[in-house]
UniProtKB/TrEMBL annotation:
Domain of life where this protein originates: Bacteria
TPR repeats: 250-283, 437-470
Gene3D superfamilies (UniProt xref): 6.10.250.190
Species the sequence originates in: Irregularibacter muris
Protein name as annotated: Tetratricopeptide repeat protein
Length: 625
């Protein structure tokens, strides 16, 4: 008995599951478009909700009839609310009709006719469709199971009545265990069951699967098709048709995302991309493409917002935000560069009006921003310095006229430089810098020729330090500066009354300007003076002081060799503590010596120590005979 009830219940359930779904629309004759449209007037005043239903019906049957389409386009929000009301009342089929029609309008017309369906309405419909499509599938299955339960109960009731008419013996016989399985009863039931019903539990599952597959294949809506294939894949993962359907419908969803992306409807595009990204059953390459497209759509959205902003500060900040989020997207870097100039111009306007704090605010915003070009930063720093010092910013013409009319070369030069720094695109300042730099150079030369070397160097330096001065003028100033510094040192050496100071200044000059022969000549002449001083101390028996002078000469550069040789001889005498005789003393000693050898040696020594005294040369010759 227990087995009988089980079999009967299963058979009834399979029968219900395999029963074709009842058509949603009756098979009565379809009305013409005019009949549907004319029927609207009958209910227009009394039942606004019915009006929407009729227009939806007209659009579904005659989508090319502009009367129905135009009404829907003009009443999108009303239809959306109508669908929401039906959804809350569990009238899901009606709700789906409204949502589907709105999505259909968007998918078919948004690309060619602009944005017909606003983004927020479209997204609401898409999300509602996802929920209701899945609910629709589950409800069908629940309804079939409920119908199966009712049929099973009725069949069991009929069977009980039949058994009630049997005798007790027959009933006991029927229920008596046997070695054979209850095949007799099963065969009897199966013989009376249609072939389409004689299926296992797997067969019933196949029926539901096929129904779901057909529904997915026949859906005219990309979103619904995608959701149905996903649901099918989740329920029947081993059926490749659902897996392939997920892949193909994911491509459609991806293309819809691209379509909205290209139209500039970035939120809708991201919504489509996200639906692909979040589904593991979508092939990896499609999900990766959707992920890349999503990132690009988000970047495009921010870039478009920045581009379209009418406010300089907002535009600048949006470009900065975009750069921080997408540092490899050069559009944001370029946007920062261009909008920084707009910010600078705003700051300059406030600066010219004397509104220093506001101007500084704009300048600081630029200085604190990333990716601002260096030349812009340098320019802003100059404006900021002026603003901080409360100096009104002159216009180009005001500053040019002030520079041009100045009677002072230095002031004129400085004003032209300032103008070039503040307004680098105004060629008048560049030309003014060049012409006034020549005037400054001439002033430097004037002071140079007068021997006022410090003043000359000061003028030369002012030219050298300004990059906006033409290169050839700066190079001339650099050469003149070096010459002025050399002239200053040479003049100091020449004018020094002290032999040691003069000697040292010539040495310093030679080391700084080795190609300037004046210092080499000065070393040569002043070395003789140093030698004479050493000799004087030597003659007095002040050997240490004498050696100090000798060493100074020996350690100096550019001293002639003959002078070095002479100093070495004097140094040997001083180191041996031998008093240096004067020319006359040494000559008389040599001349009065009674010994030929001593006479000869003294004359030689005299010649070495006093080579310019001809008496020693003659004495060497006569004593050598």
């Amino acid at each position: 008995m227990k087995m009988l009830r089980k079999i009967i219940s299963l058979v009834c359930l399979f029968s219900i599951l395999l029963t074709p779904l009842a058509p949603l629309v009756s098979a009565e004759e379809v009305k013409s478009a005019d009949e549907i449209y004319n029927g609207i007037a009958k209910v227009e005043e009394t039942n606004p909700s019915q009006v929407i239903a009729i227009y939806l019906e007209g659009y579904e049957l005659y989508p090319e009839d502009e009367r129905f389409e135009n009404y829907i386009i003009e009443h999108l929000e009303e239809i959306l609310n109508w669908s929401k009301d039906n959804e809350q009342s569990n009238q899901w089929e009606e709700a789906l009709r409204g949502y589907k029609v709105i999505i259909d309008i968007a998918e078919n017309h948004n690309e060619n006719n602009g944005i017909i369906v606003p983004e927020e309405i479209l997204i609401q419909c898409q999300k509602a469709m996802e929920v209701l499509s899945l609910a629709d599938i589950n409800d069908n299955l629940v309804e079939e199971v409920e119908q199966s339960d009712e049929s099973s109960e009725k069949l069991l009731e009929d069977t009980s009545k039949e058994q009630g008419e049997q005798s007790v013996e027959e009933i006991e016989k029927t229920n008596k265990p046997t070695d054979a399985p209850e095949s007799a009863l099963e065969e009897e039931v199966l013989e009376k069951t249609p072939a389409s019903v004689t299926m296992s539990n797997k067969g019933g599952d196949d029926s539901a699967k096929e129904e779901l597959l057909i529904k997915a294949q026949n859906s005219p809506y990309a979103s619904e098709k995608f959701n149905l294939y996903i649901k099918g894949y989740e329920l029947y993962p081993s059926d490749d048709r659902f897996r392939e359907g997920v892949a193909s419908s994911a491509v459609n969803i991806l293309n819809l995302g691209k379509k909205y992306h290209n139209q500039g409807n970035f939120d809708a595009a991201v919504n489509y991309y996200d639906r692909i990204i979040d589904v593991d059953s979508v092939p990896k390459e499609i999900r990766e493409t959707a992920q890349k497209n999503k990132a690009l759509a988000q970047a495009d959205k921010m870039y478009t917002q920045a581009q379209n902003s009418p406010y300089a500060s907002e535009k600048f900040n949006l470009y900065i935000q975009g750069y921080e989020l997408y540092p490899n997207d050069n559009r944001f870097k370029e946007g920062i560069s261009s909008s920084a100039i707009n910010m600078l111009n705003l700051g300059k306007n406030y600066h010219k009006q004397g509104n220093f704090d506001t101007a500084i605010g704009y300048y600081n915003a630029i200085l604190n921003a990333p990716a601002v070009p260096k030349e812009t930063i340098d320019m802003v720093n100059r404006y900021q310095e002026l603003a901080k010092s409360k100096e009104i910013l002159l216009t180009e013409n005001e500053l040019y006229n002030k520079a041009n009319n100045s009677p002072y070369a230095s002031e004129k030069f400085n004003l032209y430089i300032k103008g070039y720094e503040l307004y680098p695109n105004d060629s008048r300042f560049k030309e003014g810098v060049a012409s006034s730099a020549v005037s400054i150079l001439n002033l430097g030369k004037k002071y140079h020729n007068q021997g006022n070397f410090d003043a000359a160097v000061n003028y030369y330096d002012r030219i050298i330090d300004v990059d906006s001065v033409p290169k050839e003028i700066r190079e001339t100033a650099q050469k003149n500066k070096a010459l002025a510094q050399a002239d200053k040192m040479y003049t100091q050496a020449q004018n020094s009354p002290y032999a040691s100071e003069k000697f040292n200044l010539y040495i310093q000059g030679y080391e700084l300007y080795p190609n300037d022969n004046r210092f080499k000549e000065g070393i040569s002449s002043s070395a003789i003076n140093m030698l004479n001083l050493g000799k004087n101390y030597h003659k007095q028996g002040n050997f240490d002081t004498a050696i100090g002078y000798y060493n100074a000469i020996l350690n100096a550069p550019a001293v002639p060799k003959e002078t070095i040789d002479m100093v070495n001889r004097y140094q040997e005498l001083a180191k041996s503590k031998e008093i240096l005789l004067t020319e006359n003393e040494l000559y008389n000693k040599a001349n009065n010596s009674p010994y030929a050898s001593e006479k000869f040696n003294l004359y030689i020594k005299g010649y070495e120590l006093y080579p310019n005294d001809s008496r020693f040369k003659e004495g060497v010759a006569s004593s050598a005979v």
